[in-house]
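REQUEST FORM: STRUCTURE PREDICTION
Request ID: SP-0412
Submitted by: Lab K.M.
Chain count: 1
Length (residues): 801
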Amino acid sequence: MSLDETAISGDLGQGLLKSYRPYPGVSDELLDPAGRVRPVWRPFIDHLSSLTPEEIGNRFARGNQYLNDAGVYFRHYGQNDEKEREWPLSHIPVIISEDDWEVISDGLIQRAGLLEQLVADLYGPNKLVSEGYLPASLIARSPEWQRPLVGVTPKSGNFLHFLAFEIGRGPDGTWWVLSDRAQAPSGAGFALENRVATGRVFNEYFARANVHRLAGFFRRFRDHLVELRGETDSRVSILTPGPMNDTYFEHAYIARYLGFMLLEGEDLTVENGRLMVRTVAGLKPVSVLWRRLDAAWSDPLELEESSRIGTAGLVQAVRDGSVTMVNALGTGILETRALLAFLPRISKRLLGESLKLPNVATWWCGDPTPRNYVKKHAQRMMFSPALSTALPFSSAQTDFIGRDFEKFHKGILETWIDSKASNLVGQEAVTLSTTPAYHEGGLVPRPMSLRVFLARTANGWEVMAGGFARIGRTEDASAIAMQEGGSAADVWIVGDKKPVKDSLLHQIESPYFKSQAGTLPARAADNLFWLGRYVERAEGAVRLLRAYHARLLETADPEAPLVAMTADYLEDIGVAPDEPVPESLCDMLQSAITSASKVRDRFSVDGWLALNDLAQTANGARLALRENADVPRAMGLLLRKITGFSGLVHENMYRFTGWRFLSLGRALERAHQMADLLSVFTSPEAPEGSLELLLEVGDSAMSMSRRYAVSLSQATVLDLLAMDTKNPRAVIYQLTEMKDHIAVLPGATEFGHLSNLARSILQIHTSLAVATPETLTPDMLAELRDRIARLSVELTDAYIR
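STATUS: Completed
RESULT:
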């Protein structure tokens, strides 16, 4: 096969394609059957050929850096571990012409309509089973068949609102559907991030290329979900299994991108048949729920009783028509592998026409005639469980191709097929088309499949103009899954004309409305509150460790009174003074990350990166530091990063209710720490130098010298660190902050009376405001500390439990 080198400019272009040899008998996206570069690829290849290898490497690094900065990851579950992995971007996009995409779109819109009618029949009149188009046993035995939903018509009138299809191109150039994804399709958010990253790699080319944009697809879907509410006081929310899910990043990203609440099962409850979210302002209705967890786990009352991530009564809320589910519970049945064998005939029955985009040829072995065919052609069949809903080539799938199993001697494979029969499907062994991937300075062909997304909008089904491609790491098609080491590429749909600019934001003629205050879910409030506490707790530990080690270096005597007392205090609060960077300090920062990870949809990317950088710095210092002499400098670095993080978050976070809970956690922890320090280091037993240590830890030495004309005394230190309303390190300053935040929280007053929490903070604040430095004894400070600590319990009782 000769390559059309005239389409490539320069020696580098020839170098890029020098090793590009399509596999025999396999369709290729870059080259046509005659070996010529396809017209839709020519401009891009010409652009790529104009870059030096160093420029290409730098551009790829730029895309990787964006993904790293944005915190894009997927969770990889291995045999012995489960960890976040960097998003494996394949930097060369898959380019498809507008004409080819119209064919794909037309076929997938037809298929979406077919699946809607199919699932409506399965949970309704069930004519397809009674008329013999589907075997009853296949439906009844499926774990995705949700009997409690039989006879339930969705509130919106539609079972399906968001679909994904895994498609691939066959050797003859025809596109096949490999899998239907209707349960809780993932990947749309990753497609957006692929687009941004790839756009940055090829920024100047992308800006002038006629690539269709993605934002309009999401805007129209979002607008449709908002319309489905039916009432303006209810909410659209996204239901996630939680941070341990392998695609949780996407759930948080989509929630932030579309402006929807991200909820877990525990955030929801059903009251009088209506789905409600627990917020800090009480129960609020949720009328549209985009479900991102499998249906069986969504309701432990009527579905999987062992579920700890669902909401009891959710099925009843659906049954009562109080919530629109995206997609409806039970639609996972459409992913059943064996259904592919029956869809061509069902299409003619329901639509009166053949499938425009055929699925991969499939035979269910529970029927004698297809089983005999499968046995006759077993060596070129791919076998998998009939009821499987896993993706082809995924680690969760147990596919194998008959010819690959030498252990099956003549007759044994056929006997095995007979023994499995109703639990087995045979499919034509898939030979995927290939697409260019960059490898060792050149382009090489790699197998690929596309994931294409469809959303129901006010105008019917709409196809995302793109999606993402799974790219194999080798020539083996079974290695395209990312869990198996494959990568993901952006998909460019290129037309002849410049696409119309579109974005998620658009001008509207109707009146706008603002989100109501108090819509913060209680779980999110809890995590924000503890995020503030953990970060402030870590800062306090860092300041005290720096002061301790500085004095230890000065005296070189661990038994010196102030050094020994400080060491004892550190041990009392759970921080080991003899460790250069205590493990407990790293644990505080990890706890902060854990809290932040549960509110990723409410947390800025910059804040997330700063927090992770802080934790990595602390862990790195813990591994690297061996000498106590280096600790003050290391603590200084950590302190600058902590204060940098705090400033970043508090200066840029919108003053919603979530910011108030974060600020409450920070203020409570700082007030508690300072009250505790003052109660210990102003006691009669406190050694010489304790007051100076308090000023250093309280970052108030400069304020002391400017504020007071007299020499240092216990009274001036107590006045500055406990009672000065202008000192942000003072206890009363933080109590004032807490009082002001609590005053505007929902329920702060009830029928003109203060709530218990508002009354408690006012009492504590007043008791300190009317005190004097002379009356602030260690016992009174200890009591003040305990009263501040109890505020945390009161706040939890008022807003979180």
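NOTES: The chain has 26 helices and 22 strands.
Reviewed by: T.R.
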